[in-house]
Structures are given as C-alpha cells and as structure tokens.
Amino acid sequence: MDVVIGEDGLARPAWADGRGTHGDLMREYYDTEWGMPVRDERGLFERLSLEAFQSGLSWATILAKRENFRAAFDGFDPDRVAAYGARDVERLMADAGIVRNRAKVEATIRNAGATISLRDGGGLADLVWSFRPERTPMPRAVAEVPTTSDESKALARELKRRGFAFVGPTTAFALMEAVGIVDAHLLDSHRRGSSGLWRADGTPVEDGPRE
C-alpha cells in the first residue's frame, strides 16, 4: 500500500500528504480539485496548458506558479490568448513568475487557436470527454497507476490532428486524471470515488454529475 495516513486520519498518496516543498498546496489540490470533473472550455484549456508546461518538471512547481500563469495568460481565455503576437511571447519569456520555455509558450498560443476552431463541432470539452474509457484504473499502489492508456494515446493523436501541440499520450493521460475522465486515486485513498463518475468496480456511473 502506498497511502499515507495523515494527522487528520485521512489516507492519501505520499505526493499529497502535505510534506516537503509546497506540501500544503499539494494536499489542498489533491483534497479539493484533482480528479473532479471539469467540463468547461476555459477550465480544460487551462489544465491542458498547465499539463504541457509541467512536462519535464514537477507538478508542485506548476501548481505553485498557477496564479502567475493565470495572470500572464489572461485567465486562460482562449480568445485572448489566441490573439497573442510576438510582443506577447517576449513578455511571457521575460516573466519570472511562470515557466519560461519558448516552445511551451508558443504551443499554448497555438492551442488557444485550436480550441477556438473546435467550437463549431461541439468544443474542446466534448472532444476531450469523448475519450472517457469504459473502465477506470483500480490501483492499490502508486506503481500501479498508469501513465498512458489506449484512450490517452487516441486523445493525443486527435488533438494533434486538430492542431494542438505538446499533447503527447502522457500529457493527455495526466489531463484525464486531473479532470475526472479517469479515477486514478489509490483504492485506499479517502478521495477514491469522489468524482461520482465511477462505481467501486471501476465501471462508469452513466448518470453521474455533469459539472
């Protein structure tokens, strides 16, 4: 078992037990946000963008900078970000409050435009959620939590086909975990099943909460 029992008596994975740098922030994120359904365009664009920035870094680093990211990218409003030009790229590259990676900055701007282009066909949320699997993982230990899936590979391919960048299968799976498309909580965690979208046997609740 890879759960840790906290001082509050609740079981969490070690990465969310409140210890270390940004420990309290990580525990709060785990307890209130990670794995909860996100179905709005801006919310999904933000999380897709942050998962892309996280590539090669720790999630704690990105989470600690999230408010800076939101300020720098106009609250992740796709319409505003898609209109960014060269001066905005240089502004972002000079912003020490975010991750200054030119390829990731430019990918975020590109992805904003791709998000807008999806609106006529149902939008980003409909596309991403259409890859919800028939079963969710059932991990008892962190080592049993997958980093990709057939669905994340297919989602990554489709996003790339639609013009998105920095959306490989691992990033796509991390997005699916973060927004509730799969439940990657360990079985003994106090947060397992908190999204209301999955039964105890790993099958979907078809009439689960939609927001």
From TrEMBL:
It comes from the Bacteria. The keyword Chloroplast does not apply. InterPro entries: Adenine_glyco (IPR005019), DNA-3mA_glycosylase (IPR052891), DNA_glycosylase (IPR011257). The keyword Zinc applies. GO terms for molecular function: DNA-3-methyladenine glycosylase activity; metal ion binding. Keywords: Metal-binding, Zinc. Pfam families: Adenine_glyco (PF03352). Zn(2+) binds at residue 185. One of its GO terms (biological process) is base-excision repair. Gene3D superfamilies: Hypothetical protein, domain 2. This is DNA-3-methyladenine glycosylase I.
